[in-house]
Specification:
264 residues; alpha/beta; globular; 18% strand; binds D-malate
Length: 264
Amino acid sequence: MHTRANNITVGYGDQGTGLPIVFLHAFPLNRTMWATQEKALSSQFRIITIDLRGHGESDAPLWRYTLDQSADDVNALLDQLAIQRAVFVGLSMGGYILFAFYRKYAARVKGLILADTKAQADTEEGKNGRIQLAQIAYRKGPSAIADGMIPKLLSPATIQTNPDLVRQVRAMIEGNQISGIAGDLMAMAERPDSVPLLSQITCPTRIIVGELDQATPPSDAKLMADQIPNARLTIIPNAAHLANLEQPEAFNRIVAAFASELSK
Ligand code: MLT
């Protein structure tokens, strides 16, 4: 489905009924990374998946944008769907956007699941890495981004034994427009430090991380779990950065239990 929000087209999915759970995807993927969650959880909950600006069926603006604007897009979509409050799940960049969303729209957040993400801003080295990656995207296209990123997103065992999943992730990355890849890289480089926000997050929070995640390792997850007052951490074995794709059953169990508790 599509709608217009903040002068761009936004692609989204809306399946099932019950407590709404809004899923925000990682960089540089799209909302189809949540297909397994949508299938498993929409019999119990209303599952909203959004193509964040720059990705999937949403527009990839040619001009600079920020993660705050991505949070505004999510907020506008919820207005249009008449959803007042929801549980939010954000993985990696999706988590960065949830911090921006929480700063502006905390009243809408019934519960937060922060998966394979981190609160710290980029280091100078990290920002430079993003500029290099944007250059690669312009010079060589999204398939070069896929070549570089897949080993950071999936564990070596997944890469060796699950070629279908590797193909699926590659197709998501290669489906991106270059303006979306570069736009996100600049937006992530500019995002503020969210560590000072952590102690102010008052809603129930679950932190999830793949034990093999090198992009946002368990130490980053522990930092969030230590500083968010009402948070609990689960480390998923045999998963790297895309824990929801590598270990969907474990991931779905955590989301279902958390949302069921909040439905009472
Ligand atoms: C993601 O998965 O969204 C990215 O790894 C986030 C990042 O590059 O910081």
